[in-house]
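Box 3.1. Reading complex inputs
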Amino acid sequence: MATQVSETQDWPGRYYHIDQVLNTPGPRTDPDFLAGDGVKNFLRNQAKILVIGAGGLGCEILANLALTGFKDIHVIDMDTIDISNLNRQFLFRPKDVGKPKATVAAEFIMKRVPGVTVTPYFGKIQDKDEDYYLQFNLVICGLDSVEARRWMNATLVNMVDPENPESLKPMIDGGTEGFKGQARVILPTITSCYECSLDMLNKPTAFPICTIANTPRLPEHCIEWASVLEWPRVYGDKKMDTDDPEHIGWLYKVAAARAAEFKIEGVTWSLTQGVVKNIIPAIASTNAIIAAACCNEAFKIATSSAAYLNNYFMLIGTDGVYSYTFEHEKRDDCPVCGGQALEMTLKPETTVEQLIEILVEKQDIQIKKPSLSTPTKQIYFQAPPQLEKATRGNLEKKVSELVPPGGEMIVTATTLPFSLSLRISYAT
Amino acid sequence: MRDPTGFSWHADFQNGWDTEALQNAIDKCNNPSDPTGSGITEACSFLTVSNATAASQCKISPQVDEVIDGQMGKLPGCNPLQTGPQDAIVQSGQGCSAIPSDGSESGDYDRNSDRPKVDQLDRSAPDSKTRRYDRQLRLWAASGQSALESSRILVISGTATSTSILKNLVLPGIGHFTILDSLKVTPEDAGNNFFLEGPSSIGKSRAEETVRLLGELNDGVEGKADLRSLKEVLDSDKEWISEFTIVIAHNLEAGLLERLSTLLWEDESYPPLVVVRSAGFLAEVYIQYHEHTVIESHPETAQSLQIDKPFPALLEYAMGLDFENMDVTDHGHVPYVIVLVRLLEEWKKTHSGSPPSTYPEKQEFKKTILAMRKKADEENFEEAEAQAYRVWTPSNVPLEIRDLFKDPKVTSLSPSSPPFFHLVNALAKFTEEQPSHTLPLTSTLPDMKANTESYIHLQKMYKKRAEEEKAIFKSYLQVPVDNDMVDAFIKNSHALKLLRGKKWGTLDADPQALASAIETSPKQLSAHLALTALAAFASKQQPNTPLSPTEEELTAEAQSLLPSGVDLPDDFPAAVGEVVRSPTADLPNTAALLGGIVAQEVIKMITKQYIPINGSCIIDLIETSTGML
């Protein structure tokens, strides 16, 4: 059986299309490009590539990589298949609902594209250590969460050892929303990283709690009331499962009743689900565009057959086809790749508690529940409970009593794989 | 005995059949002359047979939490035993309503008619089709989905690019697709097309193989392989092509493409043609259509609130409020719309009827807003200051919409004109004859700092007025138009789109247009000319000879299109070099990217939502950029 597979693997003509760009350089190809067998051998027999996410982008990425000749592909995804994935995640069928995405996607690719090995891991990226990530030449991310991207980005930046060029792993990141999307190439420590561009993200819509509790005006306010206030009141510590139709049904009913009470129109099942799950519209075509752009960069980086993207491609398909390709600049005060501390000017009377609020609000940091310390002492820790209790007293103190002007403060959070260094000064 | 209480509604037998599947199986299977005749359910294409173990795993969770096993003391609810023969009596009192009035649980079905209530879709958990399409319904809603589901798409050739396009159309659920392809799968096809099964597909019909594998993506889509050549169809059955909703052609031979595009241009009612060309890292997408109208363009900007021209009820309400003696809490909850209407009216009284216009005036106006605060933290007044621009931004009809009014199809209306033109004509009259000279008011109010009562009250005033203006608008309509369409039209009347396209090849036949494109879009034109030169060169070759043009040959082809004395753009060598490097390469990544771009455009064309391209979209995957020509 094994010999049969290998015989059929690279049939004559298999790479007829790809080989046209690998046999000859183009007018804009780097002079260092070594056309011919060397580059084909590297692509097909040596390159090892990691795909993060086997969802909307991931399915597309895996198929493209397999067809372009990558033979050793690994994929990580912690999710299982849901029926709402089937309008775009084309490696999955109704019979696969409930199964792990990574496993089903890997099996499908291996069945469809002979000779390609896809190694799935059904779990979290955080389960893997540096040694694991070091084995790959390239990482492509097709993720749907900011947090996972930040983790992956910081991990790859931290992995860079200036003594060892092999430790620098290019990260290609894609993302989509409706008819819009972006693809970018990150060369850790060399180009702008994911963290550098955090302020480009849209601020998530947050409704003030007093609006939700006292003066609802929109159907969304009623839904938030049901999920943020009523659920914990009625169910206590029981965790809400936004994938459970019964939970959504309950929230919908409660929200609809509140809306009726306040004469607010527009609470529907679909809106309820959209608000509590923070659903982002997604279609196959946009994913195809962004995944193709990502894989094209992976192919160009792996083969040098053409210059790769420097470094950001943004596409908007709502009004014609509009795209913008530009170089996103590295930030010197980027907490991940910048090396410089973030300058922060506070009022002398700002308390530790107020500083925490400022940090949580800050768009270019996006941190939840930060813990604070200086190089010599602990200021406030969110956990463990004993430490929280021991440091709680500092919340009311002024920062200026604890940190001298020009002093350093270190911010950490469980959601971040790095610590943020602040240089504190005081407005006079 | 009748049971008006509803509590004795019971079921001795229930089945979970999809009525359509069952009816089809009865009508079309169970046929003595085919394998289903002897009761082989597996042979019936309308049934999917699962094994018993799998089937027993399939459970539905109860909607009502109640005891369903064993002997029960009484039936659920407020339901004493009643004997006949007279009708049962409906019990009254707390908890005795058999038919819940709050829309909860079992109240979604009207027991008297067995039919779902009208708003059932909104009230209960969505069905499996809605769940499957949830992420796209949030973009184009049920109306867009139904347009997709009734569309029929013809794709010419089963290349990697063609199947990539179709994949992104089959997944969201088009009605039907046909692949027209007379060729057999080659080893080269098997290497770059995901909708072929590697070596095992080699030698089989490319249309049949790709249709089969694309079909697996969505049971709700009908796929058909047509093994004729395009030439054969154009020679003897060209009417057939006009029956599709849209036609897509990838890397078609230039002569055939010309014949096809000429045919589809002949009649305005013929389908649009999407021309897709690619070679290596370069590609082009063009849509040939006479005209494309869009009501639901999904604009980023909302309609004007018309604060500068408040409707009478709004003005009266704003002027009637006693801010001075208002309760402090209420004062901090007056919506900014009311604040601005009031202050503008007062301003105009002392400024000969004009709104603030100069910079100092605007600053002064803003100061009067903040001066109204009773407490420093009244957020509604801060919001009013931030929104003050609405006072001096006139709610005029946008220029692009006024241009629409002058369109010949709008000015010379006939009863058979499409509804879009009737609606625009009515809009033109409305804006001309109504005293405000604005677009009809819409009831969509953004969120603002206010308490529930004042916000809902304002919303109601807008809604009422919007209804009145809608009635006036409708009175200008010369033909009846579907009410949902009128609603969508008014809501989007600031962002309507009328696109007029050109026949494929118009640019290449117009040396002056080419010369001017050299100035305006040299990069895009270079890629376009390189692809045109390649197609022209290929057409002149003997069929079945390898295509390997030189740079000189293609440059000469491109140069021959330009007026004498005009040079090719400086970017041309870079483009033509790529085309010469990979003249027949349908690269998987280029194919996938084109698959996405073309599918997006086709979806926009079919749903008539969002705005499709008008012209050529040029794609360069070396720079990773796109641009319009």
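In summary: Chain A has three domains: 2-201+282-326, 209-277, 342-426.
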